[in-house]
Specification:
single chain, mainly beta, Nuclear Transport Factor 2, Chain: A, 2 domains, eleven-stranded mixed sheet, two-stranded antiparallel ribbon, 13 strands, signal
């Protein structure tokens, strides 16, 4: 279950890929040469830009340009990378809609990369372990398989009660050559509704791993 995690304040904005507004004058396109000087990262129409001086509070604990292992398709809103952590076992980055905070959010997109685990578990075994963990939470989640291929699984789980833990999550697990990649979308509602579900299922299906 995707818990309500604490995190540092925003430092990366994912701009609407269809937006027509001009980029701010202090945005520069990221390259290997200037990346070490970047402190904030932005995605605009599929390209990564950065600022050399922070417009927000403090730098993220991960380098999104280097550490984000998935090409995420977002919706029409601006999304902020609000929290991240990198260890030898897992890289996690969390995104929230601009205007929300990591301490008070309604929607959350999370990416995770687990290197090397594909050498220990098959996709089927890993998915089964995730489902088993959910069932053992004691929250009686409703779990539905949405799609399955030889390399990825997409499923949804809903939690109705207690009200403070109510949530609806769509999760994709992808097996790659370098590890397992997980993409989560969660909203703090017991049922996101069919239209919203179809929208985010399309978004998650369109997002791909970087291998």
């Amino acid at each position: 279950m995707q818990k309500y995690l604490k995190a540092i304040l925003p430092c990366m904005v994912i701009l609407n890929v269809h937006a027509q507004q001009a980029l701010p004058s202090d945005f520069i396109k990221v390259s290997k040469e200037n990346n070490p000087q970047c402190v904030e990262y932005y995605n605009y129409k599929g390209d990564v830009y950065c600022r050399l001086k922070a417009a927000t509070v403090k730098p993220l604990a991960v380098n999104v340009w280097q550490d984000e292992r998935q090409n995420i398709v977002f919706d029409e809103r601006a999304w902020v990378a609000a929290w991240g952590k990198k260890t030898p076992a897992i890289i996690t980055i969390e995104y929230i809609p601009q205007g929300e905070t990591i301490h008070d959010w309604n929607e959350l997109v999370t990416t995770q990369f687990l290197p090397g685990i594909q050498e220990k578990l098959t996709l089927k075994e890993f998915f089964a372990s995730v489902v088993n963990t959910l069932k053992n939470t004691g929250l009686n989640p409703s779990i539905h398989l949405l799609s399955q291929t030889p390399t990825d699984v997409i499923f949804e789980f809903r939690i109705d009660s207690p009200p403070n833990l109510a949530q609806d999550e769509i999760q994709k697990i992808t097996q790659g050559k370098e590890g397992f990649y997980i993409l989560h979308y969660v909203i703090k509602q017991p049922d996101m509704g069919e239209q919203h579900r179809e929208k985010w299922l399309r978004i998650i299906q369109s997002s791909v791993i970087k291998e």
